[in-house]
Amino acid sequence: MKDQIPTIQTEAIALIEAVADARAFEDARVAVLGKKGSLSQLATAMKDVAKEDKAEVGQLLNAARQAITAALEAKQAALQAEADKQALEGIDVTLPARPLALGGLHPLTLIRDEAIQILRRMGFALADGPEIEDEFHCFDALNTPADHPARNEKDTFYFDSGKLLRTHTSSVQIRTMETAVPPIRIIAPGSAYRRDEIDATHLSVFNQLEGLYVAEDVSLPDLKGTLEYFFHELFGPETAVRFRPHFFPFTEPSFEIDVKLTVKGQQPRWIEVAGCGMVDPAVFESIHGQRKDDAFAAEKVTGFAFGMGLDRLAMIRWGIRDIRLLIENDVRFLSQFA
């Protein structure tokens, strides 16, 4: 066996040096070091070597394996260098490189980040909550009656467990008030889910940004000033903003907010962008029932809340006529925002 090892080593190195391509290289490696390779087969015979010779034979085997492995690595490097050389043949390396296409942020990300930055400058902090909610946080705590259309299975995605996909991020407001004490000034951007038929203006999954401010002596002028400033920052200082009386179960009084959209070649028109209002005392009563303290007693604090669809804001900002463009991942459309 001592005589076989040098012979196999010499034959293996000669075989490797004769290799001309990657396929032959792999065949040579397997023929020597594979499970049934010549060196591997010899190594399995170590069990039959006399005890006094095992150390010497083992050293010879290790030396042979190291030499063969080094020959393999050298040949592999040589083959790769030759392949690289062939790949570069006919290429003028002095030519300027082709520019790489750069990606960009999605329009919804752009509008969300800008909206957050504006509101953070006004002192609002980010808050988050689960997208799979229970009826209390999504409806009951927000003074939504049991027969309200939003609670119908035709409008909301329910699970067999009774839980649901949140229909708005207002549930984050409730969860924040359950764990924090006034003053609270938070915004909650995130996904919301409703059983809407998908068309040019509706999606079953959309993006909201809601806000809540609760403290002593928060007033309707505070709400109006905050949102007027926000929309002037987002759409420009000349943007006309109006508040229309409306009804929401969780605010009283409540308003819908419109901005006047001016498109070149078209008559200016009002378009709805948000809903808002002063927090209904019934909401504070629900929080009191959960907290068992008077941190949100209606006689101590007041507050306002607002919510807006980021998809709609993006459509207004960039004149997008079909909301489905925001989810189709068409590079031709998205490249406009890169």
Structure described in brief:
With 338 residues, the chain is an alpha+beta fold.
What does this structure look like?
41% of the residues lie in helices and 19% in strands. It has 338 residues and is an alpha+beta fold. It folds into 2 domains: 4-88, no CATH class; 107-337, 2-Layer Sandwich (BirA Bifunctional Protein, domain 2). The strands form 2 sheets. Strands 1-4-5-9-8-7-6 form a 7-stranded mixed beta sheet, with helices on both faces. A two-stranded antiparallel ribbon has the order 2-3. Strand 6 (241-248) and strand 7 (251-261) form a beta hairpin. The longest helix is centred in the first third of the chain and has 35 residues, at 54-88. The radius of gyration is 35 Å and the shape is elongated.
